[in-house]
């Protein structure tokens, strides 16, 4: 069976240049004509300018959810998550959710989220306190 190596999220954006600047300057992605990728496609987006502003539709919360995400990315440890939060905040990210810890039978989960210029929510989470 063939193995999928990476995936990217396709986002319709209102202004391609504004979005490219956000993904480059805030998320520290390598940005090309269409792509915004970070960490060797660990986080990847294909940015396409929308024909009409009504075409841009960030996700709404699903059944039983109190928040929504458009992209969810993972980091190894809570320490790395805290470092990433600080880096993104220092780079001017619009914070949607500050880091929160959730305790489960199997351990703890920590996450935070930011919003891009079109209000797409990009969340980051970790299930491991430390190495």
UniProtKB/TrEMBL annotation:
Q: Domain VOC spans what residues?
A: 4-127
Q: Name the SUPFAM superfamilies for this protein.
A: Glyoxalase/Bleomycin resistance protein/Dihydroxybiphenyl dioxygenase (SSF54593)
Per its UniProt record, what InterPro entries does this chain match? Glyas_Bleomycin-R_OHBP_Dase (IPR029068), Glyoxalase-like_dom (IPR025870), VOC_core (IPR037523)
What this protein is called in its record is VOC family protein
Tell me the organism. Cohnella silvisoli
Task: Provide the transmembrane region boundaries.
Answer: none
């Amino acid at each position: 069976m063939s193995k999928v190596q990476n995936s990217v999220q396709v986002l319709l954006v209102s202004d391609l240049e504004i979005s490219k600047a956000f993904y480059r300057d805030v998320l520290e992605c390598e940005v090309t004509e269409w792509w915004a990728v970070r960490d060797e496609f660990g986080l990847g987006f294909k940015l396409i300018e929308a024909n009409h502003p009504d075409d841009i539709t960030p996700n709404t919360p699903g059944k039983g959810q109190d928040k929504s995400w458009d992209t969810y990315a993972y980091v190894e440890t809570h320490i790395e998550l805290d470092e990433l939060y600080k880096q993104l905040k220092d780079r001017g990210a619009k914070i949607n959710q500050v880091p929160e810890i959730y305790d489960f039978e199997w351990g703890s989960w920590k996450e935070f989220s930011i919003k891009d210029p079109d209000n797409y929510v990009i969340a980051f989470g970790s299930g491991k306190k430390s190495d």
